[in-house]
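Please, structure for the following, as tokens.
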Amino acid sequence: MFINKIHHIAIICSNYEKSKNFYVNILGFKILKETYRNERKSYKLDLEIAGEYQIELFSFPDPPERITSPEARGLRHLAFEVDNIEDFVKYLKENNIVTESIRIDEITNKKYTFFRDPDNLPLEIYEK
């Protein structure tokens, strides 16, 4: 096996400041590096989760919208592990972020639910 792990996930946003606020101030990811690439008129924000580099947040002028929800071909959703799902759902709601009802994974018996980022990207939280 040559692959060790997933290195990072790249997300293209429509409103850089709004998405930066969401991922940094609401979800609590740490900024490793923020770069403005003048030739592309684009920001690249490297974010860390629990001590590991994991997300690249990009802004590009006029990116096309996502066509449909999770059942579209391509990335279905991005999932994050939490210790206590009820506490995190309460926190999201306090920050005006709508979540679906908490469900139980029929295979693992773990709790999970979905919410959306500022560009309507489906995000999942999954209890440890």
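The domain at 1-62 is CATH 3.10.180.10 (2,3-Dihydroxybiphenyl 1,2-Dioxygenase; domain 1). Residues 90 and 99 are 9 Å apart (CA to CA).
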